[in-house]
Amino acid sequence: MHFTLSDLVIDITQNAVESGASLVELEIQETDKEFRFILKDNGRGMNKRELERAIDPFISDGKKHPHRKVGLGIPFLIQTALQSGGGYDVHSEKDTGTVVMAWFDLTLTDTPPVGDISGMFRTVMLFAGPEELNIRRSRYTGKGEKSYKTSKSELRGVLGDLEDAASLILLDRYLKSLEEDGEGEE
């Protein structure tokens, strides 16, 4: 099981990256009562049978991780969402891509903590693979709405190589500032 909802989002995003996608879009919506994420990719996608197998925790195609007998990413997502008063939806089309959505009731004690959102965004931005990774974040609280968006290409344009230590420090500071200050509000 994942310790935080952010860990779960990282796992599902890694699946999208490993699907051969050139474009991954991650949207995080949060209120005082609900955490929701929507992940879209233009990767390999799955037909109906493959999607049924992806939802079954006791089946793995053996291609992505040949040493594993089970695949648990989507089954953990489903279990966590349902046990925390939320839900999920997964749509996929072969050779077109996949959309995964899940929501969690933050008022229930069974819901894992949200976790480190800026750290989650930093992690997914550093995944090798997609040419573009877009992030959209919205928070609705009693104090109002804060939202921002950023992309891998935008960050590379400003910071250069995201593998350089100085760039990583600046990336971390920037993402933390977006979360703390609401800079980039729309």
Short description:
This protein is of the alpha+beta class and 186 residues long.
Provide structural commentary.
The chain has a 6-stranded mixed sheet with strand order 3-4-2-1-5-6. Residues 64-71 have low confidence and may be disordered. With 186 residues, the protein is α+β, with helices and mostly antiparallel strands. 36% of the residues lie in helices and 27% in strands. It is built from 6 helices and 6 strands. The chain is globular, with a radius of gyration of 17 Å. The chain has helices spanning 5-18, 48-55, 73-83, 117-125, 152-159, 165-181; strands at residues 23-31, 34-41, 87-93, 97-105, 132-141, 144-151. A hairpin with a 3-residue loop joins strand 3 (87-93) and strand 4. Helix 1 packs antiparallel against helix 3, helix 1 packs parallel to helix 4 and helix 4 (117-125) packs antiparallel against helix 6. The chain has a single domain (5-181), classed as Heat Shock Protein 90 (2-Layer Sandwich), CATH 3.30.565.
